[in-house]
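We were asked to recover a plausible sequence for a given structure. The inputs and outputs are reproduced exactly as logged, with field labels preserved.

PROBLEM: sequence recovery
POSITIONS: 138
GIVEN STRUCTURE:
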């Protein structure tokens, strides 16, 4: 009897090891966007990817394919693309699979939402917590 493994079983070790997941996504980005990846110091790139994973996990995106896609779109569209209200509403439906949510987002009715998502750019969109005013305890 042949043993069958589900994709989630195969991906589980990668999802359980954040450093390995960050490296996996960086490898994906190196294949798809080599010039972009080369422009960032490794430590900063790792931080951006790690933060992207955290944001995606907040949307219950736990499939490595869609974690890669979520992160990739931060460069291809805009770093804050997921904040566009129509897109955000779909992503926030955590009961629907990541695959189904991204399928919905790729339909023509979201074309204008993707155009608006391009406006969510700027340094504060990459690592927003680093741009918040410092709290002083004077």
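RECOVERED SEQUENCE:
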């Amino acid at each position: 009897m042949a043993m069958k493994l589900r994709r989630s079983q195969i991906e589980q070790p990668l999802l359980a090891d954040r450093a390995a997941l960050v490296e996996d996504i960086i490898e994906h980005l190196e294949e798809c966007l080599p010039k972009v990846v080369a422009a960032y110091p490794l430590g900063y790139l790792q931080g951006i990817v790690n933060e992207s994973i955290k944001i995606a996990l907040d949307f219950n995106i736990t499939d490595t394919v869609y974690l890669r896609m979520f992160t990739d779109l931060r460069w291809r569209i805009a770093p804050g693309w997921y904040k566009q209200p129509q897109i955000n509403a779909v992503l926030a439906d955590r009961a629907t699979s990541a695959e189904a949510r991204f399928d919905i987002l790729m339909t023509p009715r979201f074309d204008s939402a993707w155009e608006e998502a391009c406006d969510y750019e700027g340094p504060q969109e990459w690592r927003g917590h680093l741009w918040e005013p410092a709290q002083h305890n004077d």
